[in-house]
Backbone:
């Protein structure tokens, strides 16, 4: 019998993941959706079909075998799991994709295992894959983002140590649901590409390592964004033009994230469209990254430059502006207006 899946957290990332699951996941039963803002789950369920939005967390948990979560921040994760752990969750499998610090993951893992459930730490690095929606003159349409997800998977159950290190599966009643291997990473009976592009397999490591990799991975994301933004501003200031720079970036780096950041910057989406990641959230994560760098005596100069530009962008456009607004900050620093298409 196919397990029943619930998904907690219908934000931008959760919307993309659940839409992909419905479209490509070969789900026999409609996926259960839960969000603290009920209307958001209701509207999303109507849009994607083959899903049902429930009104309480208790209903989502009690009706499901596998509970997938992608929540806004550490506070939301802690509060929701405090409530979940007051219920009977024995035998259930939790897939946690939120961005939290390693120590939070460690505490959460221990509590879930002690409650008789199973746990996968699977935070993701997300990149905007395509944008579709509002066309010129169509004020009724809504911009939406389809997101690619690169998951960092860490398996942890109380019995996983009994398995061969070359081939591991979570020993649950849902045999075969998760089959991580050295050669192929994570495979789901619902193809992993239903929700993402690739997996970094951390089988055998403590779950906190998955969260640590996500946190450190933010260095790559932010410094890439910084480099792309600087290159475009330099091209504009020298007279080369951003169009030629955009073509060069697409030639050198045809796969995301370079091309995606480049497109959002040159098109003006960094200030015109719904944020991919709100800048105040990026700054919050950056503070943890820099704290960790300080504790380990690690130099992250290029990252610090990018983080400073986040602060400058927030000053110009507010805390809800998009993370790629660092492009606007670099423009201002270079004597250009923050908005590249401002009349």
Residues:
């Amino acid at each position: 019998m196919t397990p029943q899946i619930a998904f907690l957290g219908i934000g931008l990332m959760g919307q993309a993941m659940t839409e992909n699951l419905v479209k490509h996941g070969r789900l026999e039963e409609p996926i259960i959706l839960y969000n603290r803002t009920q209307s958001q789950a209701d509207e999303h369920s109507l849009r994607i079909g083959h899903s049902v939005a429930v009104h309480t967390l208790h209903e989502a948990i009690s009706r499901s075998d596998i509970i997938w979560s992608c929540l806004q921040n550490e506070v939301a994760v802690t509060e929701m799991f405090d409530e979940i752990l007051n219920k009977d969750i024995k035998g259930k499998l939790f897939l946690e994709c939120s961005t939290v610090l390693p120590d939070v993951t460690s505490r959460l893992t221990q509590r879930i295992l002690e409650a008789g459930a199973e746990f996968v730490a699977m935070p993701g690095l997300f990149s905007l894959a395509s944008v579709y929606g509002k066309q010129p003159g169509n004020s009724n349409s809504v911009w939406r983002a389809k997101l690619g997800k690169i998951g960092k998977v860490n398996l942890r159950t109380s019995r996983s140590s009994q398995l061969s290190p070359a081939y591991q599966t979570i020993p649950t009643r849902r045999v075969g649901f998760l089959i991580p291997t050295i050669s192929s990473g994570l495979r789901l009976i619902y193809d992993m590409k239903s929700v993402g592009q690739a997996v970094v397999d951390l089988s055998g490591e403590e779950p906190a390592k998955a969260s640590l990799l996500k946190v450190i991975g933010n260095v790559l994301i932010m410094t890439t964004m910084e480099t792309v933004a600087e290159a475009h501003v330099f091209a504009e200031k020298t007279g080369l033009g951003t169009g030629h720079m955009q073509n060069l970036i697409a030639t050198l780096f045809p796969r995301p994230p370079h091309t995606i950041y480049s497109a959002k910057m040159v098109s003006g989406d960094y200030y015109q469209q719904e944020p991919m990641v709100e800048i105040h959230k990026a700054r919050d994560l950056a503070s943890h990254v820099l704290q960790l760098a300080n504790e380990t005596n690690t130099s992250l100069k290029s990252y610090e430059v990018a983080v400073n530009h986040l602060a400058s962008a927030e000053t110009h456009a507010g805390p809800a502006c998009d993370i790629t607004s660092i492009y606007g900050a670099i423009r201002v620093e270079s004597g250009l207006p923050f908005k590249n298409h401002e009349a």
In short: The radius of gyration is 21 Å.
